[in-house]
Amino acid sequence: MSAPFGRRLADAVAARGPLCVGIDPHPPLLAAWGLTDDPDGLARFTDAVVDALAGSVAVLKPQLAFYERHGSRGLAVLEDAVARARAAGALVLLDAKRGDIGSTMDAYGDYLRPEHPLSVDAMTVSPYLGPGSLQPAVDTARQQGGGLFVLARTSNPDAGTLQHALVGGRSVAQVVVDTVRGWNTPGWVIGDPLPAVRDVAGRLGPATGSFGVVVGATLREMDLDLDGLSGPILAPGLGAQGGSVADLRRLFGSDRAVVPTVSRDVLAAGPDPAALRVAADRWTAELAG
């Protein structure tokens, strides 16, 4: 078993900064790069992004749907890209948003197994069949050193219609956060005082567990209790979606393990590899400022 994802993420962020770059080869972006919307164009796009960024950014986040739409040849492109990105030192977070029950969820969790053809470091999952539905993937993540990011408080305009619904006095989004908090602190019971946790160096503080939540960087206000999460927060929405580094600090403060995600603002700089690196480096520098 490899080192737990939370530890590998902390090491990658310490070495490279916290930036996560999404790889989203949707048809308009392929066209903007002068590429065809087929497996060949997909491969050229993906190779350019991986070659330019895998050696410098902490996390690359390919969106699975844009590869699945090209069938088996698209998935072959992604398999090759994931292997090359990880070999270059980037962690790969598969943006799959999978959520199901029983053996089906167990099969989705196989993406975290090293023998899987599309083996990744972590993946995004949806909890809306109930928190217990994700247990097979949680078990696999623990066994294999993988990570999960669970959709909690997303920034799409109508997210609140479900995520603000109340369950026993807590919002659905808060139930998700509390569930993930429990995965990172085994034995903790919701309602009990939060235990003191230690980071990988043994210091008291916000330890980085392998289970995180997705909370949008474009929220008007933070309406969740994230204290004691002990895991990373994936914060999409920077750049083209309107989120800024100032928003990150306003929403999350400075003492949480936040992984900010940028896609269009970096990818729009392509296809020139040097321009892609400059765009990513600009965000890395701003996040460090």
From TrEMBL:
GO terms for molecular function: orotidine-5'-phosphate decarboxylase activity. Its EC number is 4.1.1.23. Pathway: Pyrimidine metabolism; UMP biosynthesis via de novo pathway; UMP from orotate: step 2/2. Residues 18-279 form the Orotidine 5'-phosphate decarboxylase domain. The keyword Transmembrane does not apply. GO terms for biological process: 'de novo' pyrimidine nucleobase biosynthetic process; 'de novo' UMP biosynthetic process. Keywords: Decarboxylase, Lyase, Pyrimidine biosynthesis. It catalyses: orotidine 5'-phosphate + H(+) = UMP + CO2. SUPFAM superfamilies: Ribulose-phoshate binding barrel (SSF51366). Pfam families: OMPdecase. Gene3D superfamilies: Aldolase class I. InterPro entries: Aldolase_TIM, OMPdecase_AS, OMPdecase_type-2, OMPdeCOase_dom, RibuloseP-bd_barrel. Belongs to the OMP decarboxylase family. Type 2 subfamily. This is Orotidine-5'-phosphate decarboxylase. It comes from Blastococcus colisei.
